[in-house]
Amino acid sequence: MIDISLRNKILILFLSLIVISSITTIVSVLFATNNSVERQAQDKLKVGLKVFEQLMDIRANQLFESAEVLTADFGFKAAVLDKDEQTLISVLENHGARIDADLMMLASLDGELLASTDAITQAENRFPFSDLLSDAEKEGGLMKTVMLNGNAYQMLMLQVNAPVPVAWAVVGYLIDHNLANQLKELTTLEVSFSGVYRQEQTLNISTLDDVVHTTSMAQTMTQDPWQRVTWNDQQFLALLTPLVDAGYYQVDAILSTSLDDAFASFSPLKVQILTISGVALLVSVLMGFIIARNITRPVNSLVNAAQRISSGNYSESIATHDAQRDFKRNEIGKLAASFDHMQREIADREEKILYQVYHDTLTGLANRMAAQQQIEGLIHHYDQTDRKFALLSINLQKFKLINDTFGYQTGDLLLQAFAESLYPLTSDELKPARLGADEFLLILPDIVESELYEKLNDIQSELNTSYSISSLNIPVTTYIGVALYPTHGTRTDQLLRRTDIALNQAKAKSQDIGVYETGSDEKHLKQIRLVNDLKIALTEDQLTMFYQPKVDLHEKRVTQVEALIRWFHPELGFIPPDEFIGLAEQSGLMPTLSRWVIRRVLNDAVQWQSEGVDLIMAVNISAYDLAHDDLPDYVMRLLKDLKLSSRHLILEMTESAVMQDSNQALSILNRFNSEGIKLAIDDYGTGYSSLSQMKSLPVDELKIDMSFVLNLDESKEDQAIVQSTIEMGHNLGLTVVAEGVENRKSWSLLERYGCDKLQGYYISKPQNSQNFLQWFKEYDVNNEYASESHSDSLSG
């Protein structure tokens, strides 16, 4: 038996303790490090998955905003209604280029392909997503990952409303290497996309060198989305995320991170721990014990920090140790500092992503999602109280004209400047929002209804100003639609919808401010029905033309008739023209309606000629008709087909219609004039044109508005206005027509003033074609003068 001294026993004991402690510490550190690496890798993949989902959501929002801009475009709606394939393809290509979309399609409501930027689909003339139409219709639109021609797309299917659904617009972003590389830059993860179409691998995209790895990885991860895989002698931890599984095709995203690289970052720590343990054995048992004990503590602290970070808590700073006192603690401190830096980077990245989710990328204002959350929070706060708040939907008047005139870049700068002007108009807690292209939202808390209009006028006076953009002073005017909580609604969606209805009513009435009126929902639904029924009425010829004659005082006979459209709805009865014509203008149906009227009137003219009646047909056209460059070509082609000369047609338009876009209107009117078609200014005296503008118009006829003629026999003021207007018209070389002649005395006065033509109920009310022909054949203007002479002789 070996005799060992107490000192040696103590030394052996301490040496044994330090060795055991060192070994235990080393094993503990290695175990904790391995676990930490695994957890960090999982956390990194989970964070990467969140980033990927939020990136896809951002792309989805961009798709939605872009599709809303496309489907709200007036010209696009008109092209859809006309089914002009070339125009539709051009619009889709231009819009797709502006938003960097990879796929643009348009399909009818029953799944017929109308236009596509995809050459294969366009060549095959088929709509590949017809099986998704029912789901899209139920949900009011559909966001989905799809496969087409071996490629995967993030696709949005959205209805085109004019204002009722008329077509489906499809906008898509390609899921490709650019997306994979973008996600890799954001997360530092390897990103792969695998797609299978009818059990055949058709999509292999990966930031790894070998795309075959993507296929094998996807096949092995069908049961468990978490897998450790080996590739090129490297260990990877991978996470599979299904994007879509439609039965006959599926698309998966695979996020992976290298475990070897993660373990390699801990190699210096392992070496340092071994070195520290060796030095501890040589220096002293006590120091070894202290070092062994203190190594475990910071490592555990880092493990706890890693667990806290993996749960999404980034608020606490990771404590570091004093590097001057302890070499081991200095190295652990570096590791802790690295953990702390990583924590801040992850927190900053998530903060940026969350900011994009709730803010408009152009103006920095809150977006629709954030606005809805603000409104819901305010409703919850105001519930069970008598407090009220107002929602203001603000729209820039003629913003499209600004874009068309100065360009989209100037338009974007104007939107940013306008957005800045909204901040001072509400409280600091309630941020203004941008809902669409040029539509903004303000929330006004604690509103007193009696002071509402004063507040609205103050806001509009602040907004209706000139904005200095790129050395340009661009004047801005606005429409404002208003809904009050709880007066006009108690739900977020209800308030937003009624705010939008109030805005549309303000636009329709050309009023700067519109406050929601009770019952407008029903009126809005009726308008939607009328628009839909008007389309049917146009296709089935349910509309009727009435005619009112114009008497030529020089020729003493009827030479013209004015065509007036009438609609007798099979269920709703008579619909006033002012009601459905306004809806036709708002819904984009006006060009179709005007062409129907011109075609019907000229056909009636041909029918009348066969019965010996040769009259000039006067047809009213609107500002929307003057905005279409193809109208003159259509009219001349129709005249040629019907073998009518241009003298058989006179087009009447109001001063307001001409002045809305005077340059465009003048261009169209000059083309009509060059073809020999006479032009007339209708309802003269009620518009806002100046004499300098009037003399530049190529018009032949001036119609004095009936408001000046109805009481002409009694009103000295009307007599002065009418007489001076007739004289002015003659000085400008125009034929003057007075409408609204109600009695023989007014006839005599107008004849004495030199008026050229008369129109009114005294002569004849508007009649349908058959009744008018019968009246025309029996009417003799000379009877008016014969009866007048007889009256004079009796009085003498």
TrEMBL record:
Keywords: Membrane, Transmembrane, Transmembrane helix. It comes from the Bacteria. InterPro entries: Cyclic-di-GMP_PDE-like (IPR050706), EAL_dom (IPR001633), EAL_sf (IPR035919), GGDEF_dom (IPR000160), HAMP_dom (IPR003660), Nucleotide_cyclase (IPR029787), Rev_trsase/Diguanyl_cyclase (IPR043128). Residues 527-780 form the EAL domain. The keyword Membrane applies. Residues 387-518 form the GGDEF domain. The chain crosses the membrane at residues 12-32, 273-292. Residues 293-351 form the HAMP domain. Gene3D superfamilies: 3.30.70.270, 6.10.340.10, EAL domain (3.20.20.450). PANTHER family: CYCLIC DI-GMP PHOSPHODIESTERASE PDEF (PTHR33121), OXYGEN SENSOR PROTEIN DOSP (PTHR33121:SF71). This is Bifunctional diguanylate cyclase/phosphodiesterase.
